[in-house]
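Summary for the funding panel

The consortium committed to producing paired sequence-structure records for every protein in the target list. Below we show the first two records in order, beginning with the earlier of the two.
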Amino acid sequence: MGIKALFSRLKGKFKISVVRNIVIVGSITLFVKLAGFYKETFVASSFGLSELLDSFYVAILIPSFIQAVFISSVKNIFIPNYITEIKVGKTENIGGFQTLGFLLISAIVLVFMGLTYLFGHFFLDIVFPGHTPYFYSITKSQLYIMTPCLLFWGGSSLLSALLDIDTKFLSSALYPIFTAICTIVFLVFFKEAIGEMVLAIGTLVGSLIGFVFLLWVTLKHKLILFGPPLINDNTRMMIKQLPPKISSGFLTGMNQFIDQFFAAQLVVGSISAINYGIKIPSFILTLSMIATGTVLLPYFSKKINEDRLQAFKDLFRILKVVFLAGLVVTLIIFIFSYDIIKFLFEKNEFTSKDTYTVSLIQQIILVYVPFYLCGNLLGKFLTSINKNSFMAWVSLYNLIANIVFNIIFMKLYGVYGLAISTSLVITISSFIYLYFTYKQYKIIGTE
């Protein structure tokens, strides 16, 4: 009877749309990330912790930074304000809001593509000094090949936002798989023909196919409703929130540049070691953040308009579950860290020495995973209530603390010190987010 009651209770929970959607997005994201991991085994086997692989990670750093800071910022502020606009119910307003969103993202992308082509090589010379001419040559070539990815990433971000708002989570969670598939195909069939540019070209082609897929799905469901650009209270609020959201994303994204900069001062392969050490923690984080964030940002945006106090209560309940689940999963991976890295990557150019280095970095990074999950969830919630200015100040603290901790711990522990610094910064900032959110809850409760 106890087992039957448990299954009956679970069945009842899965009737709740938000839980069902999280499970759907989580399942698809798991599939996509497994494909990405399969791709990484090819990359590790082909290049090991080499200068060529270092160059690829440095080259993709600039477009990835622009995506994480500017493109994601537009998407995150687009969703809650677009949902508010939908409540008004005027089709022409909805179409105009979409047009403004796409114009905004297009302008940002084109500006930064131009800046990358004009000044990207200067940036590489200044931020990553002391490398060989070969390193700079292949890094710049890969950077110029991958810069057009920004066009497809920008379009994909708003197309996926429209699908998320309309609860078409399956397609929006699936489209990143095309980049992994294309990279594998290019490594298997075109590595000899393309040579050093194989990873960059695979990334570009995969981004294009992913964008075309999302465009086809949104057109199929008639979600694109372009109209004359709309200027009203909602769009003004969206534009007003853009500077603090971008500032927060910029300062957060700079931490990756800072870590790569410090790693570049160490022995060859340190950049790759950091990137491989964060693969599995990133897998857990991305899976959880996409599964919860994709569903919960629209959910909280709607809930805030209906019952603000209940939205806070829902948040705190979800936080408890997320933290405990993250703690259990990361503890298991922590214990078997060396064996996991050996199984996934140790072959051909990836040696047992590489396995030891990467597994230890991974263990250090895993410490912050439960805190990062909760901090990200709190960030989504604060975005839904337009508290982006506070997050910008926290991001500034994180950046300063990361620089200071990197200097201290890198001198003491080398590449492992960079991982220690990151874990400390993220853990502390998650508590700051929680404290601020709880204060907002108390304020709402006394009104």
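The next record, for a separate protein in the list, is shown here:
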Amino acid sequence: MPVEYHEQITIGGGVTATFLPAGHVLGSAQILLEHAGERIIVTGDYKRSPDPTCPPFAVTPCDLFITEATFGLPVFCHPPIAEEIGRLLAVRAANPERCVLVGAYALGKAQRVIAELRAAGWHAPVYLHGAMETMCRLYEEQGVPLGDLRPAVGAAKADLSGAIVICPPFALNDRWSRRLPDPITAMASGWMRVRQRVRQRGVELPLIISDHADWHELTTTIAQVNPAETWITHGREEALLRWCELRQRRARALALTGYEDEDD
């Protein structure tokens, strides 16, 4: 049986669990664990910026807060997504004979980019790499409208001129993309803040769009939740640990090996 947000379940030993919105992607959740009056929250991946495709992060006071730190450095400050979408549309308008090929993670990121394009007034068809179609259909079945979506394979080159095409990051520079009309390569990722990542990907239009909390969102969340202790994992633990220490907040780093979202 599916578990709804805010529904409390018993998992044994007097421990209850409640799933709370994490704001990361559709269906993502924090887990609130409670036992004998003690409250622990495991956030998983989360973000605080608005996202029309999923419920927002639920700020919930607790005793122990386990937070991710994917972008746990002060340099990571994600701009408003409307600005990045505006840049995308401006480049498309300036190059009407070319298409803009946007690399985006298939779960959550692609759907968010499409929804924000619609909010910005782009109502023309958005063309999809085949790997994106199933997840986009699932989002629509869950009540997230994405507008006119069409497969890029089989579309006439004339139809793709001036179009926006969404593909997984691995397809940006492979054989599949060569049939597109002189594509402008873009990448939607929080890592596009890092110039070396942009060069490595060969990206012409870096779009700083992330489904993870940036530095300000991480620190704001800890202050709002106000836990007795914070455990930090999944990312740049040291800087966030130091931030906590300077504010007399108890904290520790939990280092996990080999866990990083390269395509966020």
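Regarding this second record: Residues 8-76+212-254 form a domain with the Metallo-beta-lactamase; Chain A fold (CATH 3.60.15.10). The first helix runs from residue 81 to 94.
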